[in-house]
Structures are given as C-alpha cells and as structure tokens.
Amino acid sequence: MQTSVKSEYVKRTQKDYSLSFKLQVVEEIESGQLGRLDACHKYGIQARSTITQWLRKYGTFDWDNLSREPMSKTPEQKILELEAKVRLLEKQKARAEHLAERADKKVIIFDMLVDMAEKEYDIQIRKNYTPELLKTTKDNTKKR
C-alpha cells in the first residue's frame, strides 16, 4: 500500500510579515542594497507587487510626483504647525503666570500671618540680622 502525502500549498498573506520586517526590506531597497526582485528571492516574498505596496506605504519615495525627495510641507501646513506651537506656548505662558501670581499671593498671606503672630503673641518671629552679626555668623560656620 502506498500512502500519498499531499503537500498543501499554504498561501501566505501580508499579515504574516511583521512591521519591523517590512520596514527592514523597504530600508534595504531604498538604500540600494537590494532590488525588488532580489528582495523577493532573498526573503521568499511571493510577488514584487507586495514589496511595491510596502514601499508606497512605508517608504520615502513620493509616488505622486515620482521623486525620491521627501515631500516638503506646503505653506498652509507650515502655518498650521506654527499656529499650534503658538497656542501651546500661550497656554504654557498663562500657566506660568498663574503659578507666579499664586506664589506671590502665598508670600503675602504668609507675611500677614507672621505679622499677626508677632502682634498676638508679642514675640519676634522674623530675625533681623545686622551686617556685623551676619559676618560673625559666617565666620563661626566656617570654623566648624
């Protein structure tokens, strides 16, 4: 008895290839290391059209204008980007101003609290150093 072994052909799809693999193949082709047909043979890819799709999707080649230069941004795109940056900077500035104003208010409130405590308890909380006293304090700390 003979048993026949059928080898079923399993069609591979693009989903079998990882994104990193696709990007590697596109990089090799765009750098000139391989041609599309060479990449098909080297990596066992079924058709050149698959690689062409990858090049269109992941490559830097401008297929509409057939140039290898990356597409430059139009003036409208540049304006939109700059306007977005301006809005971001304005938000950051407003936040910084808000925080500065809040810090100033805290300082005023703390000063008022210290003044009230000094009057209420008749003690001196703030220390007023005279220049001579500051000098002797610095000298004492250096000697230690």
If you had to describe this structure to a student in words, what would you say it looks like?
This is Insertion element IS150 protein InsJ-like helix-turn-helix domain-containing protein. Keywords: Coiled coil. Residues 21-61 form the Insertion element IS150 protein InsJ-like helix-turn-helix domain. It holds the Pfam family HTH_28. It comes from Psychroflexus gondwanensis ACAM 44. The chain is an all-alpha fold. Among the domains are: 14-58; 75-127. Helices cover 63% and strands 0% of the residues. It contains 5 helices and no strands. Helix 1 crosses helix 3. The longest helix has 47 residues, at 75-121. The N and C termini lie far apart (103 Å).
